[in-house]
Amino acid sequence: MKEDKENEQQINVELSEEMAEGVYSNLAMIAHSNSEFILDFIRLMPGVPRAKVKARIIITPEHAKRLIAALMDNIQKYEDQYGPIQSSQDSEPTFNFPISFGGPGGEA
What we know:
Elements lengths: L1 H6 L9 H4 L6 E6 L4 E7 L8 E8 L1 H22 L26
Antiparallel strand pairs: 1-2, 2-3
């Protein structure tokens, strides 16, 4: 156990003021190839015919798997504190939109 702690690297992460503001996204599209996952974070506004990709993140399959694990851990902690998150899949969809960026598809 002590040896594991000695082998851990500490990473200092810098967060600029601009980046700290964040970007709002209410839709994510995910595509993949044999070597990477592409996550497009999109802002879809009511009454606006075009949705804009606000951020694109490209990660390796290994990082994608770690991201899923980290999200699942954080969702569990959130639900333990605030109660279950209501999924839109649990109710009737309020809108239906076909979006295609070409290439392999995914869901979020």
